[in-house]
Amino acid sequence: MTAIMLRADQPFDLDRTLSCGQAFRWEKADGRWQGVVDGRAVRIRQDAEALTFAGADERFIRDYFRLDQDLPAVLSSIDRDPAIGAAIRECRGLRLVRQPPWECLISYLCATNTNIPAVKRRVALMAERYGRRIDGPFETAYAFPEPEALAKVSCADLWDCKLGYRTDYVRDAAAYASEHPDWAERVAALPFEEARRALMEFRGVGPKAADCVLLFAFGFFEAFPVDVWIRRIVAETYLPDLTGRSCTPAEYERIRRFARDYFGEYAGYAQEYLYCARGPARHTE
DNA sequence: TGCCAGGGTTCTA
DNA sequence: TAGAACCATGGC
Predict the structure, then answer these.
(1) Across residues A191-213, what is the average pLDDT?
(2) What's the Å distance between residue A73 CA and nucleotide C6 C1'?
């Protein structure tokens, strides 16, 4: 086991960070989190300012959890009103992790019109069946399958991973990514709006999924994904003239541009804090 | 049992 | 171009 002593002036809340719904491969048992990230089976726990972990080195842990990002400065920049202020107080220490782009893309392809437990199940099934088995600090861990591995899977077998109508989207993305292994590097090198358009070239990736991948994998912090929860919060707090229940493309565009102008370059952090602090109907872990 | 969920695509007017 | 229909599944 390796330990990091966190700086008192740089808050970090492991529980908030891993339970807020941004990543789908972590589970908590006996006070410890275990998950699979980028081919590593990682076990980690937090006791106050001590972060103890196995399965990865300190550099990887710092990079994945963005421990070197100045979180107080980020939160100060988005703390614009009592609503986001309350979310910041409730969830202080939540950090946006740096997810592997390929896994993040497929995870959010699987996250359309569904709930978080179902997404976790789909991702876990794909990993168990088509991912590489990993030795680590806990038993039977599987890496998320590489594009080449998923591209070879039959439609029926992928369907059996509970993907439903998303099956063809995953197969198409796997075929493309295996033929263009530099796809993520090319997206990362683009300006934000161009990167967004590039991600939406994948069939099954619309504005919401693209914004999630930009935020959670590529570190475009101005991305502001609008799901049903965020739309509800924005309508109640910031844009009361929003009508109806569905989010039309024009409305999505209006909300994300409002958020970028209002919260600034770290609007994505505001989104995640509002999402994490949302009301009592939250999902179960 | 019905509604809802980290939506997107396709069809139609 | 906007709105409606449709899509599979699982939690509650």
Answers:
(1) 96
(2) 45
